[in-house]
Queue: 3 jobs
Job 1
Amino acid sequence: MLDERRKKILWAIIQSHIDLSTPIGSSLITRRYPIGLSPATVRNIMASLEKMGYIHQPHTSAGRIPTEKGFRFYVDTLLEEGNLSPGENLFPDLLKRLHTPEKDSNDIIQKATKTLSLMSQYMALAIPLKNEDMTLQQVKFIKYDKKKILAIFISENGLVRNTLIETEKTYTQHQLNTAAKILNTKFVGLTVQEMKEAITDQLLKEKKAYNRLIADLLSLFKDVVAVQNNDISFNGISGASFLPDFVDLKQIKQILKAIESNNFVLKLLDQMDSSRGIQVFVGMERIIPAMKELSMVVSIYSNRTRSSGAIGIIGPTRMNYKKLIPIVDHTAKTLTRILSSS
């Protein structure tokens, strides 16, 4: 545990490093903050903080910079205090920026992503609404090629998803129409999760009854549901040029390649708690090694059916959390407000 004096010095080091982007020395701390301590005393406290793993010295005779553990302490303190304010004009300004005559949720989410990138000056991302809670209104199968079928999934709230799938067998359009009619009768009004469970039960019944056609088409639809559930992608990544700490173009390309992969999304979703609002990931090496020096501020948003997604920003570990946490939080809340009323 840190005593109050160490907490004040650590806070001063981290805030100064965020503001100045340089190693911080004891003399600078005493000049910037009215802490009532001599530089020698501050140096002793800094030495103890270094032993505890909160800061480190990049090279001899240099000042100290925060470690991941130090930034984690700083962020946790900000979240615990809960007095982060984005400014009085942010909420109505966001509503104005995100106002659109279009009712398509994907368009609204993409617009929110671009707006968040402009406001934060960092890379913004959005994970679409999770499909587990989507309710089926209608499914259609269209013969695309000899062994390829275009599956169209229409949800209760009007979201349309198209998926091209390959099959082992060849089906006629008449068979596909029959399958769609049966599936719409059996599964309309169910969520994706409920459909997955119902299909599994129905498959067992059809196999026992030796109705191979229906069993095959149920298997086909099960594959469609699986794709709908796992086909998670970013609804717009913008602001890649707003990463001033990374001058190495090769590193930027590695980062972009990493975050565009489904592997990153799945790992991120595994780390996130959908029951919480704002969440901060300090140092993302555990998710993607190339993102070791990056942090992410992300918040959950939802629509009127309570399907949830996430929106946030990625930037250097020394980003201004005090300013950016409330911006991300209010963007998610504004997005929820718009999607819930559309």
Note: Confidence is low (pLDDT under 50) at residues 227-236.
Job 2
Amino acid sequence: MIFSMTGYTAVSKDVGRGVLFLELKSVNSRFLDLGFRITEELRAVEPQLRELISGKVSRGKVEFRINLLPSPACLARTKPSEVLLSQLASWQEDIRRALPAAQPLTVAEVLQWPGMFGDPTASAETLQSDCLALARQALDDLLASRAREGEKLSRMILDRVGSMRALVAEVAPRLPTLIVEYQEKLATRLREVLAAQDEERIRQEIGLFAARIDIAEEVSRLTAHLDEVERVIDKGGVAGKRLDFIMQELNREANTVASKSVSSDVTRIAMDLKLLIEQMREQVQNIE
């Protein structure tokens, strides 16, 4: 299965003292780039979260955000710690005397302060365990999202591969005829230019130019590269960089076909091939 690097999920869980709200978002990146925005109460689990994500995701910019929000039920049955509120007020006054420009604490910051609704050390391990469990659930959802998007990308690329095969099949049988027609035109022009009809010289020139315009080798390589695209997609896994390299090779062959073309039909086919390759290349950038 091919995976996209784009995905999003959001999950939450009531853990008694509040609600854990977790967001995972991933976008394109050449490498694995992890970013975390974690409440201080859960900062200790960041190394485990990094290991968890890097074990399942190989490429992409992944943003992980988690907050512990007070639930309405929790607020209804508990009150903020008066001792801690008094201590925070005292600290804030001291800080603002020393730093007048310092911003005061917001209500949300006060409510999320460790220990505001109970002993923070008593449930620290439970909270971290809940965080890891929720992260595993979110990661599974993210991978499923990336897999669904990857399936769409696979179908699109294989559809373009089919279109390219049709173009290659259209041009391949016509190559011998095109070369013969070009040889005849070239022979006529050479006879007109050369005062003395040196047939040996004419045959040499025709052979030289025929070799220059022969695209049979490029057509063969195009077919081989298309086979490789299908093989890589069928194999699945981390395939983005491999597919990106194949796109470069396909584009190289299409450019050569266009440069060697001596027929408007071949030029048209080469341009159509380049358009399909560019469409695939754009989507390959999204593949892990």
Note: The mean pLDDT is 83.
Job 3
Amino acid sequence: MTTAPLREHAYDTSRLTVASVPSGHVYVKHLAPAHGGGVHRLVDPAPGQPDRPAGAKWWPPVMLDPSWARRARMDLFHLHFGFDACTPEGLRELTEVLRERGTPFVFTVHDLRNPHHDDPRLHDEQLDVLIPAADALVTLTPGAAQAIEARWGRRTQVLPHPHVVDLPTMSLATAVRSRWVHRPFRVGLHLKSLRANMDPMRILPTLVDTVAGLGDAVLQVNCHRDVLDPDGARRDVELADYLHAEEERGHLEVVVHDYYSDQDLWSYLSSLDVSVLPYTFGTHSGWLEACRDLQTTVVAPTCGFYAEQGPSLSYTSDATTFDADSLREAIVRAHDERPRLGATIDERTAQRHELAQAHEDLYRRLTA
């Protein structure tokens, strides 16, 4: 494991052209400095129209097509996300094309276990292609770097996750939160469309009992329509019945909605004191980072490396284990202590500059 030195110095005026996959993702956008910089990231091509920019639409990533990589004008190829549906054979062909043309390949290992896949085998096979083929590896936490070295014998540069929420929204959310007085303590559980790594029924009874015992607190459960609507494509009858029954008893609030826009999501997270992550497996979390941007305390499971990303509260939970007492203690502590675990704007601004420089340093070393 290697941890990159994050330092300040002037950017080289010679710009490198990098294919970052996908460049439209907020994580990739915030690896660039707020102004200027020596790296030009190609815009995601439009699916079905590989010679036209995609704008905000980047799925599926055209840059993962070996034929696109064979003819693209770039100095370096950096893969982050988007290869979920790629076959190991297709990824192997992509890495061979990059090697044939002499284009350095960087891979940031965000997920050691895909949170959308019940069966880990496909993701394991994809990593078995990508990690050995990469000219350089990056990951977000020391624990993930240690796991990569133990499994593949590869040393990995550790660079933390940048801010997710834009800086003006961070500033506004912090100001609004400072004016809160005499309001119920709000605990949020967001279930989205029930990804494979979510098991809400494991933790909901403990959350309901704990929040009810706090007296001045509200438990809010958000979920997408496809899970809770009677005709939803992914309707979960057990979950729907439980939530509606507990809502009738006044033990929680249920909010059913379509996918939030970014601004709707930031408004929702800003309204919470605590966001509980209901994961049974995983590696890292952008949701956790967004909460830290908005000064919302995160209660995260002990699976994966969430605790290494930044300050949060933890409860014991993984694919086979759940400790209700640890979840109860984390919620009570958040209520009693109101810990300040978020990242400040100054911290995020400095971190973004340092991350941009660290990535440019890596790119220049590989293309020298």
Note: The chain is about 40% helix and 15% strand.
